[in-house]
């Protein structure tokens, strides 16, 4: 998993509450278990018109936001079903960070397992960031995980909190497999000892 230390990128505003996982990646795209290629289906029902062409009114189709790496979204982001395809689709599109006042628990957990940083901020700070994100190509925001700060295009900063274990995993690019491999030496030692003590096993 890619490490997350500091990210500077365009932030796209999505001032919509209760964006669920079906909205993030519709069920038609759940036929694959691959993590790649799902970016084309991200927000598909809003992002494309009935004829399959891009909807020019959808934020991620606007020239200023087509390469956005940060989403600033309304309350309760990622609610609904527990599909892990939702963070896969966000990551495949290029989104590395989602900022909101609240997240659904399973989606929140899945983000950390896939290298996406979900940040919880107060309603007042979300309003400031939503305003920053509304500046089009000037909506460049820096997320500094080491210092737990978000810097807006005008230089102002917002502090945020994060569980220290989750922060450690993101800073070091550790998913569940990576965490296990940190103990590879101890595991190998146990296997050798166990094999010597129980050769019949």
TrEMBL record:
Catalytic EC class: lyase
Molecular-function GO term, any one: 3-isopropylmalate dehydratase activity
Domain Aconitase A/isopropylmalate dehydratase small subunit swivel: 1-122
InterPro entries on file: 3-IsopropMal_deHydase_ssu, Aconitase/3IPM_dehydase_swvl, AconitaseA/IPMdHydase_ssu_swvl, IPMI_Swivel, LeuD
Metabolic or biological pathway, per its Swiss-Prot or TrEMBL entry: Amino-acid biosynthesis; L-leucine biosynthesis; L-leucine from 3-methyl-2-oxobutanoate: step 2/4
Domain of life of the source: Bacteria
CDD domains: IPMI_Swivel
UniProt keywords, alphabetically: Amino-acid biosynthesis, Branched-chain amino acid biosynthesis, Leucine biosynthesis, Lyase
Reactions catalysed, as given in the entry: (2R,3S)-3-isopropylmalate = (2S)-2-isopropylmalate
GO biological process: L-leucine biosynthetic process
Cellular component annotations (GO), alphabetically ordered: 3-isopropylmalate dehydratase complex
UniProt xrefs under Pfam families: Aconitase_C
Similarity comment: family membership: Belongs to the LeuD family. LeuD type 1 subfamily.
Xref: HAMAP family: LeuD_type1
Subunit structure: Heterodimer of LeuC and LeuD.
UniProt function note: Catalyzes the isomerization between 2-isopropylmalate and 3-isopropylmalate, via the formation of 2-isopropylmaleate.
Record's protein name: 3-isopropylmalate dehydratase small subunit
The organism of origin for this protein: Agrobacterium bohemicum
Phylogenetic lineage: Bacteria, Pseudomonadati, Pseudomonadota, Alphaproteobacteria, Hyphomicrobiales
């Amino acid at each position: 998993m890619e490490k997350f230390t500091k990210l500077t990128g365009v932030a796209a505003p999505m001032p919509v509450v209760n964006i669920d996982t079906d909205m993030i990646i519709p069920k038609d795209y759940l036929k694959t278990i691959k993590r790649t290629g799902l970016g084309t289906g991200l927000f598909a029902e809003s992002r494309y018109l009935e004829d399959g062409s891009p909807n020019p009114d959808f934020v991620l189709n606007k020239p200023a936001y087509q390469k956005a790496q940060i989403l600033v979204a309304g309350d309760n982001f990622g609610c609904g079903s527990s599909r892990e395809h939702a963070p896969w689709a966000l990551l495949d599109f290029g989104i590395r960070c989602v900022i909101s006042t609240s997240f659904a628990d399973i989606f929140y957990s899945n983000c950390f397992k896939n290298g996406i940083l979900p940040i919880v901020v107060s309603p007042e700070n979300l309003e400031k960031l939503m305003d920053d994100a509304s500046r089009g190509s000037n909506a460049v925001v820096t997320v500094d995980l080491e210092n737990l700060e978000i810097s807006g295009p005008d230089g102002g900063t917002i502090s945020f909190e994060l569980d220290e274990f989750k922060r450690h995993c993101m800073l070091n690019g550790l998913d569940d497999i990576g965490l296990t491999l940190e103990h590879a030496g101890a595991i190998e030692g146990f296997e050798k000892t166990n094999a010597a003590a129980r050769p019949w096993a």
